[in-house]
Every structure is written in structure tokens, then in C-alpha cells.
Give the backbone structure.
Amino acid sequence: MFEISSSPMKNKAVELMGLTKILQLPLWSLLGIGVVLYLGLVQILRFRSLRKLNKTYAAYLHDPYSLDYKTAHQIMRRVILYETPFMYAFGTQWALLKTYTVASGTTLLVQTGQLTSDSTVGKRAEDTGVILAEFLVGSVDSDRGSKALAKMNWLHRRYGSKIKQPELLHTLAMFVLEPIRWLNEREWRPLTEIEKVAIYVYWKEIGNRMGIKDIPDTLEELEVWAAKFEEKNVYFTKNNQMCAEATMGLFLRNVPLVLRGFAQHAAVSLFEEQSRLALGYENPPIWIAKLVASAFHIRKLIIRHLFLPRLHELDPLAKPDSSGRLYRNAWAFEPWYVKATVKSWLEGWFWTSGKVLPGPAYKSNGFLVEELGPVEYEKSSKEPVAKEAEEMQAYASKGGAVALGCPFYSVGYPPKYGA
Ligand SMILES: *[C@@H]1O[C@H](CO)[C@@H](O)[C@H](O)[C@H]1NC(C)=O
């Protein structure tokens, strides 16, 4: 029995040894050749997508600022969905945290209670992610994307002149600059000029449609503006700390208790000094900071030299069922709008030991874009959001900011915020 079943294997081995004899090579050097070929393949394929990007957008390379927002969006999507999805998402979370360094903004956030109450902090984070995905991954010009942006505007506008123009612009700057900083420092390759500018150009279009005035003309100017704003407006307050703590608590919720102190130090080590102080975090132990930096560095080397690129772009947008309601497949902290299936249940058990599971409490019946955001405004916002989305689409089809000047204002519902 044993003899028979093992003989084909034996034959293979004998054949292989015969081959190495013919080639006059020992087996280990064949393995060596295999490894070298694989590493060479990684080198060739790693940069294939970038070479293609350079070729496709060659006309813009000498002056990336000549990109229109639609072309910019194609380039940016490639970064978010194919080149560096994980780090872009991570950097965006940090952008959100860094908006809490602005003392005048966190006062309002604490008043609304959405952020600091344990029962709403998860929904707010997931809704923010869903809304951003609708117009960053989807498009500001699509029905879904323009509704998502209109809903965001509607929510901001509720707070009237309590939200100031410079605060809006600083938040926009964080969402542009922070992911770029993350990618440059920690990703397997830095972004090229055209990729960075594409991110800026697309976000600028979003800023226009949020009614943000005087957005600086280049990435460099935006960076200078943000640094100047931060000199005056970024300093420690109790409210900053409360906002940061609530969000950090959410990030670390599923980390085992014994590791939580370590994980918090590790997370804090990812801030620059100025932000860390403004959020009231103590300096993490130097060995933890070094460990985190090394881990990112090792990840960078492994991906750069050993990993083949991914095969497809990711597809994180929620998908409609036959009724038109949208359902998510993936979630970060709480399974909002995830259909309750055996698979999603098991995932919930796996990630949270059953603490949060898809179900009616997390709207397992899906969502419509205009419903996103605090539950209490679901009905009252529906009509104005639909109207503003239509106006926004009309604005875009007439040529948008280029033809009509910027920023965009919803005619029927002029933003009172941002005085
Ligand atoms: C793509 O173009 C940029 C200049 O914009 C250059 O720095 C980079 O090396 C090019 N990359 C490849 C792989 O062609």
C-alpha cells in the first residue's frame, strides 16, 4: 500500500534530481534561482501601475494643477482603492482626530454630545466613513455622492455660525494633508507629485461644494495656511481631550484589556508633538514609539520587496438590494447597515467576541444615503437634502466652479454657517 501510493512522488523526485543532474545544478541552487526570479517579478510588477499612471496622465505631469477634478478623481481612486488603501484609511482616521486639536471646534462637538456619548460615538464614526466613501470612492457628481455631500452640508448648517470658515478650511486641510503625510512617511513608496495634487484638486472641489471660501491655490499654500492657523488655534483644552478620548476609546474597544495601555501609547506615538499636546496625551515611552516606527518600517520593506501587488481595486461601496436600500459588507467598529447573515454574524463573533453583532440595533435593514447621520434628523432632512443634491448636480453640469465661480451655495437653503 505504502509503496504504491508513494511511488509517484518518488518518481517526481527522481525526475527532478535527474533534471538537476542534466543542468549540473544542485537542488538548492534551483531554489535560489526561483527566489531570484520571484524577487525580480515583484520589482517589475510593483511599479507597473505607477508606470501606467505616468503614461495615461502624461499630459498633466508637467503641471498637475491643470488637472480637472474628474481626472483628479480617477487618479485619487487608484491611490485609495489599489495602491495604498490601508494607509490612506488610517491617515484619514488621524485627520479626523487632528481636527480635535482645534479648541474652538471641540466646544461645539462636546455640546452636541454625538461624539462623546458612548452610545453615538460608534454610529458617528461609521456614518462619517460611509458618507466619505460615497463621494470619495463614488463620485461627487453621482446621485449617491451628491446626496451624501448635501447631507453633510445640511448637518453642518444646523449649527449656523457656530462653525467658522477657518475651522471648515482647517478640517479640509487635515483630510488632504494627513493621509499624504502618512503615505509619505510609512507607505512602501511615497506618492508622486501628480497623485498628491490629484488628492488636493478633488478635495478642493468638495470644499467648493461645502461652501468653503478662499481655499489656497496649491498644496504647499494649503500647508502653509494650516501651519499658520494651528499656531494660533491649536492648544490643549479639556474639550479637545474629551473628543479624542471618545474616539480613541472606540478605536481600542476590541483590544484586550491587558494590551490597551500599550495600544494607546502606540497610537499616540503616531501624532506629531503639537497634536499630542493639544489632545492632552502624555509622551509615550520611547521604546513603544520605536517599536511602532520599526513595525511600519518592516511592513514597508516587506511590501516593497516581497509582495506582489494586489490583483484588483477594492470595492468598499455599499451595494443596493432589489428595494434600493444599501448594505455594507465591511465595517470598522460597529456593524451599521450590515445585513444579518450567518457570515456577518460569525464575523461579529470573530472580531468582537459577540459584543456587537449585525441586527436591528445597527440597522441591518440598510440605509438610503440621505438617512445617514443622527437618527433624529432622518425625516426632517430628507427633502432639503434631495433638493440640494439636485442643485449641486445642476451646478456641476453647468461647469461647476470653473464656469460659475466658487464656492457653491445651495439656493434654497443658503448656508448660514461659516460666517
Ligand atoms: C512617474 O513619474 C514621476 C514624475 O512625475 C517620477 O518621479 C516617477 O519615477 C515615475 N515612475 C515610474 C515608475 O515611471
Residues 1-5, 411-415 have pLDDT under 50 and may be disordered. Residues 47, 50-51, 54, 61, 192-194 surround 2-acetamido-2-deoxy-beta-D-glucopyranose (CB under 6 Å). The longest strand covers residues 319-320. The beta strands are 319-320, 326-327.
